[in-house]
Amino acid sequence: MKRVFIIPEPHIWDKNFKNRKDYPGEISDYLTDISNTISAMDGDKIIIFPGDIFHQGFSLVPSMTRALNYFTTLNRITNNNVYSVVGNHELTYTACNPFWMMASDCTERFLVNRMSSTYGIFQPGIKVVDELAVGNLRFIFGHYGRTDYEVQPFSSDLVLISHNSIVESTVADVIQKKYGRETYVDYMKVTKLTSSAAIPITAALKYVFVGHMHTMYSKFMVDDLIDHVPMNFHLQYLGSLGRTTIREVNNEDLIRTVPQFIVEDDGTYTYEPFDVQLKPYEEVINVPVANENAVKAAKVRTLKQIAATNVFGDTPEACVRRELENTPECLTLFDQIFNSYSDDVIIALLKEANLL
Description:
Layout: E1 2-6, H1 23-39, E2 44-49, H2 61-78, E3 82-84, H3 88-92, H4 98-102, E4 103-105, H5 111-114, E5 126-128, E6 131-134, E7 137-142, E8 157-162, E9 166-167, H6 169-179, E10 191-192, E11 205-210, E12 218-226, E13 229-237, E14 255-258, E15 260-263, E16 269-271, E17 274-277, H7 281-284, H8 287-308, H9 316-324, H10 328-338, H11 343-352
Parallel strand pairs: 1-2, 2-3, 4-5, 7-8, 8-11, 9-10, 11-13
Antiparallel strand pairs: 1-15, 6-7, 12-13, 14-17, 15-16
Helix pairs in contact: 1-2
């Protein structure tokens, strides 16, 4: 028997945000709880991350050592079967990122990252693949920016783990109503869920797990005809263990799901996820600092709004007309002046109005 776990993106970092009490410690607590839960289960284990394992590069040696030690533990638990999708943070923050020090890229997609002198120096580490077959399941790794999904008959059920902004406006509306916050507008490069650039268009697709979109935690059942293909799949937005902005810390949104597939020796499988409880606002946020930052942010927003205000309307002419609209005689005079191309005519009009 094998167990396949998908751990939501942790955004591990060696630094603390100014408005947090202990961000590195918070993430460490979640990951320790998850690894302890997985370790206590029987069977062979496989762990997959949906990307953004590390928030940015590290500068503190003790923190780097702790991160490497954690992945040593995961590899011991899984007999060196730790995998990851490559997320945007892996591609954006490459310098001193422990990910690439542990990476073993088997995809030919990340040749530039392999050129680093520290690439893959810590092994066993993290395997990067395009797909992974486990029993009657095939896990598809939706690396950031990937759009080349095969469309062919599959003998296995497909599980897509994506680190891309894939969503429909109706899905975003449901989540916005649930949590009372904007979601859809947060993400650049949004691809429609029903596009072949977002998912493999095949009836074999049974599960889609989406990382990257921190504020989109929720689950749906999709039953639709997509490109003339009848499709029915479980859609789970994983959110993020690492809530890297203060507005992600929402006491109405404190659950994260760790998907788990139990694959029997004959290839059959069951889906049995378990939940992780995130810490509430008051336990992780430095409230005085957050309040001070909120005041500063409000001032900045106000100044930006003032700076963006066009006091003239569409044109200076429109501003003048607005000011004169309640005095028809002045508006008439303005029209005569504005439409005259002769200095003599303008001067005569101004004298007539006793303005010269």
